[in-house]
């Protein structure tokens, strides 16, 4: 029975008066911040972990939400978990990983290096590697977001890091024969690996991530995500870190939900006029009335961090 095997929940689905008013379209929020482990990552990663529930150990390289989802899934399934985290990982996240019973190994300045260490450990120990975004099981798990919708939207908005969420959303749309529903794929200027790949017509590796949205920090977009831009109406879109910070603050006031910068990127387009601006020039967005916003969640935020970001950009 598959139903008892899922470790994620059917996330709340809720109309937002404030976002609808700000953007001029009807906005429905899929509140993935309510998932166990705090983000949409629980869907894809737990789905993959369930498929490998007889594994001796799960290994994941993520200083963030993928690691938290893997730690949660392992604990639920009774499988030990080792998480490799880059040196940039906050103590906040490391403590959360340890609270879920995971072993945490620090090493590698950035994710790429840290991932190499994880892969080596997998080889030595016969563990199962749980990638943060690039695997068909992960996309399949993430596609359940769309499976839960009651009716067809005119547009889905999501944030893009490595592209695992976007891949799942497109898979979900295709499964429901909603192939014509466009996806607005939002990144910040300093983490725009999808945007640059689409401009260049090939995967591009960014020299560095220069955004506060560190959990969008995949320097190269996933191969599958890039391929999908050729077959599905995907509209890459960029927002500034400053708008992201304004959005975290505004969204907290409006919806009483605190989101991390990576999640706020996709919400920013509804506050800052970007969606309206895109709709005026993009025929695919010409007749959008009902929008599904995936509030992807994430644990990398506190009120203190928000206060510091506001000071950084001189936001009152």
From TrEMBL:
Swiss-Prot/TrEMBL GO biological process terms: gluconeogenesis; L-serine catabolic process
GO CC terms of this entry: cytoplasm
Reaction(s) the record says it catalyses: L-serine = pyruvate + NH4(+)
InterPro entries, sorted: Ser/Thr_Dehydratase, TrpB-like_PALP, TrpB-like_PALP_sf
Keywords for this protein: Cytoplasm, Gluconeogenesis, Lyase, Pyridoxal phosphate
Family per similarity comment: Belongs to the serine/threonine dehydratase family.
Annotated protein name in UniProt: L-serine ammonia-lyase
Organism: Ciona intestinalis
């Amino acid at each position: 029975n598959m139903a008892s095997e899922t470790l994620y929940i059917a996330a709340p689905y809720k109309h937002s008066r404030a976002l609808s008013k700000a953007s001029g379209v009807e906005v429905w929020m899929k509140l993935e911040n309510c998932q166990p482990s705090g983000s949409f990552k629980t869907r894809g990663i737990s789905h993959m972990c369930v498929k490998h529930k007889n594994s001796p150990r799960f290994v994941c390289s993520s200083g963030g939400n993928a690691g938290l989802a893997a730690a949660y899934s392992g604990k639920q399934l009774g499988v030990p978990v080792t998480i490799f985290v880059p040196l940039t990982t906050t103590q906040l996240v490391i403590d959360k990983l340890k609270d879920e019973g995971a072993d945490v190994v620090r090493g590698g300045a950035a994710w790429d290096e840290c991932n190499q260490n994880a892969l080596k450990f997998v080889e030595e120990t016969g563990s199962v590697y749980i990638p943060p975004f690039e695997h068909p099981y992960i996309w399949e798990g993430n596609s359940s977001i769309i499976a839960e919708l009651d009716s067809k939207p005119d547009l889905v908005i999501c944030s893009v890091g490595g592209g695992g969420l976007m891949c799942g959303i497109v898979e979900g749309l295709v499964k429901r024969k909603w192939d014509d529903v466009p996806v607005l794929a939002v990144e910040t200027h300093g983490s725009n690996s999808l945007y640059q790949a689409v401009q260049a017509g090939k995967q591009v590796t960014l020299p560095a991530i220069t955004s506060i949205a560190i959990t969008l920090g995949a320097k190269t977009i996933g191969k599958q995500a890039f391929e999908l831009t050729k077959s599905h109406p995907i509209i890459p879109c960029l927002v500034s870190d400053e708008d992201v910070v304004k959005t975290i603050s505004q969204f907290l006031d409006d919806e009483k939900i605190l989101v991390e910068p990576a999640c706020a990127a996709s919400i920013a387009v509804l506050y800052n006029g970007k969606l309206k601006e895109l709709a005026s020039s993009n025929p695919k967005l010409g007749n959008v009335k009902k929008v599904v916003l995936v509030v992807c969640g994430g644990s990398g935020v506190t009120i203190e961090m928000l206060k510091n970001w506001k000071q950084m950009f001189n936001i009152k």
